[in-house]
Amino acid sequence: MGLVIAMYVLKVIVKLIVGAKVGSVSVYSDGLHNLSDIFEALLVIFALYLSKQPESAKYPVGKSSIESIGSLLIGVALLVVGITFFLKSILGLLVYFKLFPLLSNILSHVVSVPTKIDLGTSGWIVLCVIIGSIFLSWIVSWYQISTGKMKNHPSLISDGKETFSDSLVEFAVLAGIIGAFFHLYYLDYVFGIVVAFMILRTSKEILSEAGENLLQKSIDQEDVVKIKQVLSKTKGVEGFDQKGPDKVMAYKLGKFIFVFAKVYVSPALSTEGFYYIKKGINARIRKMLPDSEVRIYLRQSVLPEEPSRALIPVCKSSKNPLQAFIEESITKARQYYLVDLKGTRIVTVMEYANDFKNNDELADFIKRKRVDKIYFVKEDKKLKSLLPKVKFEKTSFLIFKDMFH
Questions:
Q1: What pLDDT digit, counting tens, does each position of 71-116 carry?
Q2: Structure letter (DSSP) for residue 68
Q3: Which of 19, 77, 354, 362 has the fewest CB atoms within 10 Å, i.e. the most exposed one?
Q4: What domains does the chain contain, in order, with CATH numbers?
Q5: Can you state the angle between helices 154-181 and 25-51, rounded to 10 degrees?
Q6: Secondary structure E strands in 289-328
Q7: DSSP run (H or E) holding 41
Q8: pTM confidence score
Q9: Is 60 exceeded by the pLDDT of residue 59?
C-alpha cells in the first residue's frame, strides 16, 4: 500500500500544477480526485490492520467486516467526487455556450466556474503526464486486485477497482486535451461529463457490493444446491432439513461465507464419528468455494423413528431365545417372532407357534397383526402374492440377535 500512496501523491502534485497552469477542469479535477484516493488508501490500510486482528469470544470471526465498511466509505467518497465533477462540467458547458444564465448563476454558487483551456507551449507536457498516469494506474490497479484476491481482502479489491476507474477517467481527460489541440475547448467539459459518469458507475458498483456484504446477502442458489449435494453424498449423513428454520442456509458477510445446516445421523454414531463427518464436509465445501473463507456450522440430530412391525421365521433354540436361528423357509418355520421396532431399535418381541395349515391362514394372520415387513432367506412367491402391501426383505443373518445388534 505504500507504493499506492506514493503513486497518488505524485499524481496529485503533477496534475494540480499542470491543470492549474493550462486551465483544464478535467486535469485539475482528476488531481483532486487522486487527492481523495490518498485518504482512501489510508482507510484501506487501517481496515486491513483491523481485519487481521485475531478472533475472540467477543468477536468470534474477528473484525473482518470492517473491510466492507472501508469499501462503503470509498464508494461514498467516489459518489461525492462524481457529483461535483458532473456539476462543474455542466457549468463549464453553460458558460462556454452562454446558455441559461440563471442556471449558470445558481451552479456557480455550488462549484467554481471553470475556465477555457490554454495549452500554450505545455500541450505535449500535459499529454505525457496523462498518458504516464494511465499506465501507472493500470499497473497499480493490477497489483491491488491480484493481491486482494490472493489474500482475500475485499477493501483492497475495491480500491483496485477504483484505481482502474482512474485510468478510464484519465482516458476521458486525454480526449479532452486532444480536443483542445484543435481548439474544440468545449470537448473538455463534454468529456468531463463522461468522466463524472464513470466515477459514479464505479461508486455504484462498490457501494452495491459493500452493502450486500454488510447486509448478509445469500450466496448464489447454484452454490447452495452444490452444498446440499455435498451433504447428501456424505457417508454417515442420513438426511438434512430442506424446509423450515433448520433448512440449509448460506450467506456472505465480508470475506466470509457462513453455512448452517442440521444433519441427521445414526443415534449410534459416536462423537468422534460425527467429528470426522464434519471434517469431510468442511473440506469439500471449502474446496468448492475457494475464493472465500468458509465457516461451516453443523448441528447433529437423529431422524424420527417410525414405528414398524416385522415377522421373522425362526427355529427356536432351547437355551436362549436370542440365539434362535433364522429359518430358511418362511412357511416351514417352527415359530415366528413378531417384532415391534422404532427405527432399527427393538421395542417388543412376541412369539407365535407355526400352527397354520396353509399360506392363506398365515397370510390372514400377518394381515391381522398389521405386519409391515417380513424377513426371508428363501423367497416364497406364493405367500408374497397374497401380501402385496407387505415388504419382503432378504436377510443374510443366521441368528436373531445379530439382525438388530
A1: 787 788 778 878 877 887 787 777 777 777 777 677 666 655 555 5
A2: H
A3: 354
A4: 2-215 (1.20.1510.10), 218-301 (3.30.70.1350), 307-403 (3.30.420.130)
A5: 170
A6: 293-301, 307-315, 325-326
A7: helix 25-51
A8: 0.52
A9: no
